[in-house]
Design brief:
This protein is an all-alpha fold. The chain is 61% helix and 0% strand.
């Protein structure tokens, strides 16, 4: 009879009385004890974990996007390309998570919806910071965080910093002269189409070999927004599938609010230039 396999025979450490284990390193006790359903409904655990893991992925997205912004402000923009690709893959993971949540039916959700009170994903400050960093900025959206002064201050500070696209435009201006007006904007407002920027980016696309880094940067940004839009679309369809046209728990119009968000373009010049080519 074959003896049971013992990994210690090949040198695997099996005792962790005095050394750091996997669970210690990842603080798994804290993470796995953070699920506290307020009802007896079985699907509330799904709802909680779906949103907690989304926040973890968003934390990583912010880490990568802030690093990409630092790279774009430096001499060599190319390290930002990897960061942007990774962020796109993060949103791919976030998109896949909706498939799990969509297994929850309207009947399932109604068994615990009242326990949520006024809490809503609309109030995610990490999501708001991602939007601000990418350029979709609206100071009014800081108000839901006024009860947390440190978070409100963090979002207010983000409004004063150049967005990721602002830095991409600065790099564009180093290669293709732009009028001063094209470079000036109110950082507290979302990006709006600028004809001079659209034409400059179109020049990059007409001659990618001469502007390869800018060409690749533009495509990385478009790829990121593509997956970000898919995330929003999946959010809309999931919400409509589960609650129909009811108002959201946070008081928004629910599906109507989310559909309005589908119209937002983060990098409008990079999309409109395609019509000119």
């Amino acid at each position: 009879m074959t003896e049971p396999y013992d990994p210690s025979g090949e040198g695997a450490q099996m005792s962790f009385d005095r050394s750091m284990s996997y669970g210690d390193y990842l603080h798994l006790d804290a993470i796995l004890s953070a699920q506290a359903p307020l009802s007896e409904a079985p699907d509330e655990m799904l709802f909680i974990i779906q949103h907690q893991t989304s926040e973890l992925w968003m934390r990583l997205a912010l880490h990568e996007l802030n690093a990409a912004r630092t790279d774009l402000a430096g001499e060599d923009a190319r390290p930002a390309f990897k960061r942007l690709t990774r962020t796109t893959r993060i949103f791919e993971q976030l998109n896949s998570a909706w498939d799990v949540l969509r297994t929850m039916t309207p009947s399932d959700y109604t068994t615990f919806r009242e326990t949520l009170g006024q809490s809503s994903g609309f109030q995610s400050y990490q999501y708001r910071e991602i939007e601000f960093l990418l350029g979709n900025r609206n100071p009014a959206m800081i108000r839901p965080h006024a009860h947390r002064p440190e978070i409100a201050a963090r979002l207010e500070e983000e409004l004063t910093r150049p967005s990721l696209y602002d830095l991409a435009v600065e790099r564009l201006a180093q290669a293709i002269p732009l009028p001063d007006k094209a470079m000036q904007r109110d950082r507290a407002r979302p990006h709006a189409p600028v004809p001079a920027l659209r034409e400059a980016w179109a020049e990059v696309y007409r001659n990618p070999q001469a502007h390869w880094d800018l060409y690749e940067l533009a495509e990385k940004l478009v790829d990121l927004e593509d997956y970000f839009r898919r995330w929003r679309f999946n959010h809309v369809t999931t919400v409509e599938r589960v609650i129909g046209l009811k108002r959201g728990t946070g008081g928004t119009g629910g599906v109507s609010y989310l559909r309005r968000m589908l119209e937002v373009e983060l990098f409008p010049d990079l999309w409109t230039l395609r019509t000119d080519l």
